[in-house]
Design brief:
elongated
């Protein structure tokens, strides 16, 4: 995902004590990370969180709601980490994407469990949750396009090219390449786990895309 900002989907759950909520969500994150949506056990989650199953399902009506809430909490965490300090983005689209990718990677490396969970969530979407996750992914892309379009120097694009469509094309192209490469590495790892270091080096691909949509004088 080349996202930089996102809107969190609405997942309904009842108000609860913040500490208890975080304990449950942390236990669920670890369980979902290691076993995936289908393989995760709510019995193990309640045991790790030190709560009864009745308490778990009082606040989170079912396993689906719990999983999507964990996804939303991870997105909030990443968004806060990325925006807690000012982002001095380049006016060059491709440099800005590289800057954002590097900042994201630093966040990922500092929190490998969240990274692994989110990477697997969007690489191998549980069929039952696919519609919900695709909506989140689409919103992430829209927010990324909006942010980049507001920061970059649009005069660098070739005449006749719509900047927002060009940004969307670049982001979707990179997302497809990254998804393909990371899926391959995921399949090759016997543990079924992913590390932030497995991320694809996007610079060669960005250079190719730069040539296609920038004016001649915009090349470096």
């Amino acid at each position: 995902m080349i996202l930089t900002r996102w809107s969190i989907g609405e997942v309904a759950y009842k108000p609860m004590e913040p500490d208890k909520k975080q304990t449950i969500l942390q236990a669920a994150l670890v369980e979902f990370y290691h076993k995936g949506y289908e393989g995760a056990s709510t019995n193990q989650i309640t045991k790790a969180a030190g709560v009864s199953k009745g308490i778990l399902f009082h606040y989170f009506s079912d396993k689906r709601t719990l999983y999507l809430t964990v996804v939303d909490e991870c997105l909030k965490h990443y968004y806060h980490s990325l925006t807690s300090s000012p982002m001095d983005l380049s006016e060059d689209l491709f440099q800005a994407i590289e800057q954002l990718s590097q900042k994201k990677m630093n966040v990922f490396k500092s929190d490998p469990i969240r990274f692994g969970f989110m990477a697997k969530t969007f690489l191998i979407m549980p069929e039952e949750l696919k519609a919900d996750l695709l909506l989140k992914q689409q919103q992430m892309n829209k927010d990324s396009i909006h942010l980049l379009a507001s920061r970059i120097d649009q005069s660098r694009f070739r005449e006749g090219i719509d900047p927002k469509k060009a940004i969307e094309f670049v982001l979707l192209s990179l997302e497809s390449l990254i998804t393909k490469q990371m899926t391959k590495r995921y399949d090759e790892k016997s543990t079924g786990e992913l590390e932030a270091s497995a991320a694809l080096d996007t610079k060669p691909y960005l250079d190719i895309l730069r040539y296609g949509i920038y004016r001649k004088e915009g090349k470096e």
